[in-house]
Amino acid sequence: MTILTGLGIALLGAIAIACGVLGLSNLYVGQWAVAFGLLGSGLGVGLLFAWGWGIFLDKIGAVETEVAGDSAVAAPRAPALLASFWLLVLAGVLTYGAFSVEGSSRWLSAGTAFCLLVVGTTIAFLRAKN
């Protein structure tokens, strides 16, 4: 039963990511209602995933440990660090792409990159605080 619970939580994470990506894609092409609906759904499912993730790790007995030396936290409770990293990478890619287009596409790419930069930095800062 524990395996099915883990797979269900993984499915929630995948759905949250898919809603986020599709929401950003629809935002990029100007489908505002669909975009905000998908982003809201992704946020809700993502919060449910984050809540379930902690409970699941407690259930299977996973503990957060630090690696000796000046390495980062090597624990299953550190998905925030990975998410932050990829958000910052995507912000860089979109910023680079903004210089290769003109018109409103440039501003949409730059605006999306800025939002991803803010979210990625906020996640990293909040994770470092804990």
Give an overview of the whole structure:
This protein has 130 residues and is mainly alpha-helical. Helices cover 78% and strands 0% of the residues. The chain is built from four helices and no strands. The chain has helices at residues 2-28, 32-60, 79-98, 104-129. Helix 1 packs antiparallel against helix 2. The longest helix is centred in the middle third of the chain and has 29 residues, at 32-60. The chain is globular, with a radius of gyration of 17 Å. The mean pLDDT is 81.
Summarize this structure briefly.
By secondary structure, the chain is mainly α. Helices cover 78% and strands 0% of the residues.
Largest sheet: none
Q: Helix- and strand-based class? A: mainly alpha
Distance between the termini: 31 Å
Instruction: Give the overall pLDDT as a whole number.
Output: 81
Percent of residues in β-strands: under 5%
Number of helices: 4
Can you write the helix and strand succession as a string? HHHH
What is the number of strand segments? Answer: 0
Uncertain residue ranges: none
- The dominant shape is globular
Q: Percent helix among the residues?
A: over 70%
Rg result = 17 Å
